[in-house]
Design goal:
about 375 residues; alpha/beta; seven-stranded mixed beta sheet; 17 strands; plasmid
Length: about 375
């Protein structure tokens, strides 16, 4: 009966919160039934009750991000977490589900390990998710769920939306002097940046039509500079997909985006000139020292823009960027790829949020203390 509850509860949440292409990993003697139950196009991996560490398995053969991890007959849940230390530290497991019996009397230790990595814990109670700040001691058993912080707003249908920098920046020691925003659209983040204390904003927008609106909006704003440029990893020419919702327009061809948002289509494809960010600043006589925060909202081009920054990244205290957890545009880097670039340049990822859809969100990276 407990196994049936675990299966039904998990499937209900998966249906509500995971896209069809999500990656499900089940560990333990009961793992096989999840492959059958989770059919619907999801990629399902089953591992034995005593697998090699999940960190080691993900490196050569497994996914770098696990959407849903299920412990079902694994024998020693704490040992599984020991082998997934990096995945948990980087919050690359979105949902982790286990039956209380899997804890083997170590439920408190399981809770402590997960909470130390930023996860919130819940128990299924009367067909609802019951938040648990501490492990229950009522002897009722049941199914437990750990949820990565990027999903909290969506899980509880909060209306907070994306990051509010006034609260987020001070919490992580970031004092914005100037902000470069690549992929500005019509400058919707301006009030958010000013509220956070930024004295200067550089908006860069690739689409000439959208740029015209952006430029008109901020005419006369002495604290704002607007540039029409397509920022990438090299200078050249590129095709630009202008979408019916201009905020989805991209240097990359939409793929998964068309499935996630079928009402947003390609209106036309134009050709644009691409520049690296350092070259763009230099050609307009803008001193990099005037900006200590980089923001990117470029619909899949994040890795290319960051790669093109090169040594310029050393001058930023923080980078806030859109990240993807599934391919939405052809050839786009995923969140783990953004991690690789920014970790190598001395940043740590300190916050993530995905309030609208599982496949994408924003992440904040802050420079490690020198």
């Amino acid at each position: 009966m407990q196994h049936e509850t675990l299966l039904l509860s998990g499937l209900s949440l998966q249906k509500a919160f995971l896209p069809p292409e999500a990656i499900l990993v089940a560990v333990g003697t009961g793992a096989g039934r999840w492959t059958d139950a989770a059919a619907s196009g999801r990629r399902c991996f089953t591992l034995p009750s005593s697998p090699p560490g999940l960190d080691a398995w993900c490196g050569p053969v497994g996914p770098r991000q696990i959407d849903w991890l299920i412990l079902d007959g694994c024998g020693d849940a704490l040992a599984v977490l020991d082998g997934a230390a990096d995945l948990l530290r980087l919050r690359r497991i979105d949902f982790l589900q286990f039956e209380e019996a899997e804890a083997g009397g170590q439920l408190a230790a399981l809770y402590a390990r997960l909470q130390a990595n930023g996860y919130s814990l819940f128990r299924f109670a009367d067909r609802n998710l019951e938040f648990r700040g501490t492990p229950p001691e009522d002897g009722r058993g049941g199914t437990h769920m750990a949820v990565a912080p990027r999903h909290w707003n969506r899980l509880f249908a909060r209306s907070q939306g994306m990051f509010r920098y006034k609260d987020l920046f001070p919490h992580h020691g970031v004092a914005p002097r100037g902000i470069i925003h690549v992929g500005a659209h019509e400058g919707e983040e301006y009030a958010n940046y000013r509220e956070a204390g930024a004295d200067r904003v550089l908006f860069v927008e690739a689409d000439p039509a959208t740029f015209a609106t952006l430029q008109a909006r901020f005419a006369g704003h002495g604290d704002v500079v607007c540039l029409n440029a397509a920022v990438s990893d090299r200078a050249g020419r590129a095709r630009f997909s202008r979408m019916s919702s201009r905020q989805s327009s991209s240097l990359l061809e939409p793929t998964g985006h068309l499935a996630v948002y079928p009402h947003i289509t390609v209106d036309e494809v134009i050709e644009v000139e691409t520049r690296t960010l350092p070259d763009l600043l230099a050609s307009h006589g803008l001193a990099p020292e005037g900006f200590n925060v980089l923001a990117i909202d470029a619909q899949g081009s994040e890795c290319r823009i960051l790669t093109g920054c090169g040594d310029l990244l050393a001058g930023f205290d923080a980078v806030v960027t859109e990240v993807s957890y599934a391919e939405l545009y052809e050839g786009s880097g995923l969140a783990a790829d953004v991690d690789d670039i920014l970790f190598a340049h001395g940043f740590d990822r300190v916050a993530e949020t995905s309030p609208y859809h599982h496949s994408w969100g924003d992440a904040l990276y802050v420079r490690r203390p020198r």
